[in-house]
Amino acid sequence: MRARLLLAPVLALSLVSPPVAAAHPHRSNVDLVNPLIGTTGTDPSEYGGMIPSTAPPFAMTRWSPQTRVNYVSRLPYHHDDTAITGFIGTHQPAIWMGDYGYVSGMPGTGDVQVGRSMPFTHADEHASPSRYSVKMSTGVGAELTGTSRVGVLRFTFPADAAPNFVLTATRAGITGGVHVDPARREISGYNPDRQDSKLGPFKAPNFKGYFVATFDTPVTSFGTSTGSALHEGERDRTDAGLGAYVRFPSDTRTVQVRIATSFLSVDQARENLRREAPEQRAFDRVAAQTKAAWSEKLDRVDVEGATPDQLATFYTSMFHALQYPSEMSEYGRYYSAYDDRVHSGVSYTSYSLWDTFRAENAFLTLFAPERIDDMVTSMLHDYREGGWLPMWKNPAETNIMVGTNADSVIAEDIAKGFTGFDRRLAYEAVYKDAMTPPDRDTELRFADREEGTPVEARAGLTTYKQNGWVAADRTAEAASRTLDYAYEDWAVAQVADAVGKPADAEFFLNRSKNYRNLYNPATGFMQARNFDGAWTSGGWTEGNEWVYTFDVMHDVPGLISLMGRDAFVALLDRHFGEGHNNHTNEPSHHIGYLYDYAGQPWKTQAQVRSIAAANYANKPDGLTGNDDCGQMSSWYLLSSIGIYPVTPASDSYAVGSPFFSKVTLRLPGARRPLVVSSPGNSASTPYVSSLSLNGKPVSRPVLTQRDLTGGGVLRFGMSATPSTWGVS
């Protein structure tokens, strides 16, 4: 998402290391997670973009150590930093998105100091999904854990250290409010900051991130702060660069702080505290509860035949993929930044749909199916309150990226049998995406992060409907948009068919062939076109013609027919052989699987292994590209069991090459476990020689959702040399 194009090298087949006994029945798979994966890289912003946060799956607020000030393109924690500056309750979902309604705090000793930092080393740091701890050079120790809406922090201090705690409500230029109540041992307030507020039309003037911080230790003195200035004894202040502080008895050795968050009110923050962490000393119980929540998900999968590093990569990928979308509703109510009002119902945010429609949503349909209906219902609430389905919701529409990829997610969820949302309303919403140009469509170019624009939706739809392509001389990123809109038309056709509108389905199926209008037979590549039909350069979103020529996920056979099979395979060979595949950005994620459609599945098997080896590792720089709300991780997870959803808006998966000798999946709602078995799997046997499901041969390199959720044994025969399996 919005990353500079970097070419990822295609490495030799080295993913599968010599196997070790990898099943650990005596421990939780949560213990195998390494939250430090993806916390640094060779570029300041083009790396995994992850933080060692602690909270349950899909939590509203995530708690992280803070080593720097975060904003768009910078997260609150970076592995290269050497000092802790605070502990933050953050809502920043990805490195290229902004935070909103955040709150942070920092322990101190001696004189109260705003902006204090304490050096630390990674040897004194431990991170897991359920707790984070660090011992700083001052002798102060810190531990974090959290529920969905409450962070619990535990600090230890040296003897007679005169401990204090400084809470930061807002930064310079952002006016918030704080109230200190020493009798209740409490600081409450709000932070109205939305770092993405300049993007999109929804200004949400009443938005606030509310908080209540309460302490288990008596408060001896207190005050507020603005900038570095302290206002001793002051209980209330509304200002910019705002904070508050409390001091504890000088002989205090341990302090627990519970910080409840809400987007509704301070009273709701207190209610969230009462529901989720009511006791003063809640740390150990909350940490155990949060670990149990992660165990419920991660212990559904057992991996055998993997090294410790591969196990860490696998379960950390699950940890990443089960964080988003994040909860926005609070016990039956939610604040909507679309219409600036409070509603009854369910809501999620952090919809990075240009990224996550590709594989993250497919992963969730398998591993968190109990969330799917509510996640779609949430998008339909967004449609009612803001007029459109979300593109990139954070927590209102930001107009980031291109295309109306909610269309694909809804079509996929319908294809996979989810029924707990209003399908008629869903069709109304996707139909509007497909047929209604955005306001000022003929006036604006809708450039990347252009401020002051209406909801972007399918920008350039006017010329797309007129010509069959988005005109590059009128709309930015026109070539990518044309291909996206063709795919999304196919997705809308699936929804139309599901709700009994065959004429509409036929119309959108026909229009989904518009990708053909960008194919230039003289060059053998997709190419942008001006309104008059002339070929032109550019027009791509995070890619180029090498990537986007293969961006026809809904009609790969049609693309092969258009190009010719030999030319298609030759271009794929050049794409990988010349280093054009860019796995750090999502448009490349399906390309390795396209050989399946051209009768050469052994090349898919080799490429998938190579891509995984080049882009995933158990180390802080072990993710080459932004994880983008679980998409990078979901590619790895699904690929590791031998599948990938090349056509997301369907119930099908292309077959690749499984990474491990045995994976047992106890999918929620499935009648029985699914055992993905590939005896003899190793670095020297990457090729599939046979495939069977419950003893029945599978001759084509494709599986369905029902094949997976039905359970049983999916058995791969593995080989050191390419075979003829799946060539038909």
UniProtKB/TrEMBL annotation:
Residues 32-262 form the Glycosyl hydrolase family 92 N-terminal domain. GO terms for cellular component: cytosol. InterPro entries: 6-hairpin_glycosidase_sf (IPR008928), GH-type_carb-bd (IPR014718), GH92_a_mannosidase_put (IPR005887), GH92_N (IPR041371), Glyco_hydro_92 (IPR012939), PNGase (IPR050883). Keywords: Glycosidase, Hydrolase, Signal. Residues 1-22 form the signal peptide. Coiled coil: none annotated. Residues 268-719 form the Glycosyl hydrolase family domain. Transmembrane segments: none annotated. Gene3D superfamilies: 2.70.98.10, alpha-1,2-mannosidase, alpha-1,2-mannosidases domains, GH92 mannosidase domain. It comes from the Bacteria. GO terms for biological process: carbohydrate metabolic process; glycoprotein catabolic process. One of its GO terms (molecular function) is peptide-N4-(N-acetyl-beta-glucosaminyl)asparagine amidase activity. Its EC number is 3.2.1.-. NCBIfam families: aman2_put (TIGR01180). This is GH92 family glycosyl hydrolase. The lineage of its organism: Bacteria, Bacillati, Actinomycetota, Actinomycetes, Pseudonocardiales.
